[in-house]
Amino acid sequence: MTDQIISQLNEYITTQITKQPRAVIDPNAPIITGGLIDSFHLVDLSLFIEKQFGVYIDDTELNADTFDTLNQLAALIISRQTG
Amino acid sequence: MENTASTIAETLVASFSSVPEQTSLVLLHSNQPDEVIRYCDLELGSIAYAQLLTQAGIIPGEVVILILPHGKDLIYSFFGAILQGAIPSIMPFLTEKLSVDQYRTSLATLFEITSPAAVITYPEFVSEVHLAASGAASVRAVLVTTQLDALAVDPLHQLGGLDRKPSDIALLQHSSGTTGLQKGVALSHQAVFNQLAHYASAIRLTEEDVIASWLPLYHDMGLISSFLMPVLLRCPLILLSPFDWVRAPVRLLQAVSRFRATLTWLPNFAYNFCTQKIRSRDLDGLDLSSWRAVINCSEPMHWKSHAMFIERFQPYGLKSSALATCYAMAENVFAVTQGGINQLVNIDTIDALTFTSQQIASQVSPEHPQALPMLSAGSPIQGTQVRVLNPQGRELPDRQIGELAIQSDCMLTGYYRRPDLTEKAFLDGWYLTGDLGYKAQGEVYVTGRKKDLIIVGGKNIYPQDIERLVNDIPGVHPGRVVAFGIFDEQTGTEEVVVIAEMEHSKQNELESSPEYWSQAAAQLSLEIRQKVNRGSDIVLSTVQIAERDWLLKTSSGKVARTANRAKYLASKFPAG
Predict the structure, then answer these.
(1) Is the CB of residue B402 less than 8 Å from the CB of residue B438?
(2) CA B244, B246, B252: angle at the middle one, nearest 5?
(3) For the segment B213-230, what is each residue's pLDDT rounded down to a tens digit?
(4) β-pair type (B293-296, B335-339)
(5) CA–CA min distance A38, chain B (Å)
(6) Which residue of B has its CA nearest to A59?
(7) Are the beta carbons of B548 and B521 closer than 8 angstroms?
(8) Taking CB atoms and an 8 Å cutoff, what residues of chain B touch A32?
(9) Residue A12 confidence (pLDDT) above 70
(10) Is the CB of B539 less than 8 angstroms away from the CB of A37?
């Protein structure tokens, strides 16, 4: 389940945000503080997550304190889907 | 909105005494209650900072750098510095993605150029500032917001700002990056007030107006249009943080609806951003009918961005007459021209062929097969003249494209402590903007740029700063890097492309195996992305690793940006 979510997030980020469709993001690499995606793309990510996984992430949560890696983001999505 | 005072401090003090209870600003926060700041609050808050500066031995006329998050302390310390007689300059705040080392280097550059006497910052950042200031002998005090807690505010504190003359420098404004920081635009009180008077008249500012903004204050558009103008001319300002807006663009529209705001300034990309990134359910019940002007400014303006914005928000009361345009630059304090107030913005349809081949904007019908619609920036504001010059510096007639040059009564005093740069910026008393455009029926159309500057989301980015970052990465062939911008219709702003050649030795080893090459290229491209993303204000859109000698050089051996940009575009979209 986690792997599947991570792979969908990876696909979205690499094709739509960084536009490097062949790249694979390390699930433990920081994507916000690491400079992979900037603040202008956080809202895209939250819209994608809502559409794809039915999970709402509030704008006040769009920062590195809430999630910074794909692993953390996947865990957040799962916890909201089941919670 | 008459103004007889001649310095910012005098104007503020007049407002403190005549309208103490009037609301000056409302600060909106995403997860805290709103903060209403009346002129009396502004007085107490600012005087506290003025006292702090005096206690630290800061002398009127010295520069004070402000490094603070968007909020009350930034506002109070800015006006506090002015009241004290010091010259404030707001430095962009460190963001999550920016590398601390890179930021420290920028700070050190800024300290070297402006020789500030003091820095005001917040507790968490103090040690960083001390590190950056260690090599800067001028910095005598690093002051922290929390020092105010122990301060007894003395309302009768002697304000050195009241002794400043209209011709004295009031503030400094910088663009980011190593190159931008060299050019601290120094503006006098007189220049600021001339601009405000002419601009307020151009936009027909009245006591009924309410300004809503999310713009950062370190940039001229935010600092002048959506901070100094409303506070000094007593027009209420609803201020959101750029940090909050970028995560929830709907907050701006909610603010307009809630406070019946009438005026907002936005860079072009924000029209696309608002149109594309707001959930429909979040718009339910919003009323945007109070918005009388939404002014597009600070980066190339595109008619499509206006069209998508109006289509999306018309159902919520947005009037198409609200769309307006402005051509501005920090060197003229802010606005040079203004269009679309009390009338629709003119769209001039020109022939794309004569435009590119002959540098002439010949008007054609919108049905013409080569029709290219250009959005008017409006007419020059009072006190500012615009000329179009040919490469020899001679004035061109209407509809011929050349460099835009300006002369005004609100020009910068100079680039701070850089008389060499100031001198280079002028030709026979005319400031050379580096922008290309034409005039027609008294209106100005900006068509492009002579200089290699890239503007991303309203921020000026110098390609040489990006190239310098990339150049230092092991594996990149030194000197064989180019950065340029390409306008993207989807985002409504320029996207930054970097092309770098991989180092020869590395390539020789790999030549036999294309797979190896592509792996190494992918790795290098990732490193370039991370270095630039963390070392600058932007995120790269495209990184291309090129083979040896792909990049074109000029006869003097420099990488030719324009030629390489054309080569890249041709390879991306082959002719035919």
Answers:
(1) yes
(2) 70
(3) 999 999 999 999 999 999
(4) unpaired
(5) 7
(6) B247
(7) no
(8) 96-97
(9) yes
(10) yes
Query: B542 contacts in A (CB within 8 Å)?
Result: 19
Cα separation, B56 vs B53, whole angstroms: 5
pLDDT tens-digit map of B290-317: 999 999 998 989 999 999 999 999 999 9
- The mean pLDDT value of chain B amounts to 92
For residue B533, give how far its alpha carbon lies from the nearest alpha carbon of chain A (Å): 5
> In degrees to the nearest 10, what's the CA dihedral of A18, A22, A23, A24?
120
Hey, are the CB atoms on B526 and A23 less than 8 Å from each other?
yes
Nearest CA of chain B to the CA of A10: how many Å? 15
Q: What is the pLDDT of residues B9-23, one digit of tens each?
A: 999 999 999 999 999
Residues of A at the B interface, defined by Cβ within 8 angstroms: 18-20, 22-23, 32-44, 47, 50, 59-60, 62-64
CB neighbourhood size of B70 (10 A): 23
Contact between chains at A39 and B279 (C-beta distance less than 8 A): no
Which domains does chain A possess? 2-82 (1.10.1200.10)
Phi, psi of B390 (to 5 degrees): -85, 175
Residue B522 has pLDDT above 90, yes or no: no
Set of chain B residues whose Cβ sits within 8 Å of the Cβ of A15: none
Instruction: Report CB contact under 8 Å: B97, A33.
Output: yes
pLDDT(B442) > 90:
yes
Tokens read off for B75: 């506002």
From residue B131, give the alpha-carbon distance in Å to each of B104, B118, B272, B280: 8, 14, 40, 47
Q: Contacts of residue A50 in chain B, CB cutoff 8 Å?
A: 279
DSSP state string for B50-82: HHHHHHTTPPTT-EEEEE--SSHHHHHHHHHHH
Q: Six-digit token pair at B303? A: 């008619």
Among B86-90, B178-182, B251-255, B266-270, whose mean pLDDT is lowest? B178-182
Note whether B205 and B96 are within 8 A (CB).
no
**Which among B244, B490, B529, B539 is the top mutation candidate for probing chain A, defined by the most A β-carbons within 10 Å of its own β-carbon?**
B539
Q: What letter would DSSP give residue B360?
A: B
C-alpha to C-alpha distance for B109 and B349, rounded to whole angstroms: 45
- Residue with tokens 């994608």, as numbered in its chain: A48
Question: Which region holds residue B296: left if phi is over 0, alpha if psi is between -120 and 50, else beta?
Answer: beta
Question: Which residues have a Cβ under 8 Å from the Cβ of B183 and sit 6 or more positions away?
Answer: B174, B175, B415, B418, B421
- Confirm if A64 and B96 have CB atoms less than 8 A apart: yes
Interatomic CA distance for residues B503 and B500, integer angstroms: 9
Write down the residue that tokens 């959506």 correspond to.
B226
Sequence-separated (6 or more) residues with CB below 8 Å from residue B4: none
| pLDDT tens figures, B145-172 | 999 888 888 877 789 999 999 999 999 9
Q: Domains, chain B, ranges and CATH?
A: 8-183 (3.40.50.12780), 325-449 (2.30.38.10), 455-572 (3.30.300.30)
A43, B99: Cβ pair inside 8 Å? no
Contact residues on chain A for B251, CB-CB shorter than 8 A: 59
Q: Please report which confidence band the pLDDT of residue B451 belongs to, taking 50, 70 and 90 as the band edges.
A: confident
| Helix axis angle, B303-313 to B268-276, nearest 10° | 40
What pTM does this model have?
0.92
pLDDT value at B3 more than 60: no
DSSP string, B148-193: GGG----TT---GGGG--TTSEEEEE--SHHHHHT--EEEEHHHHH
DSSP code of B206?
A: -
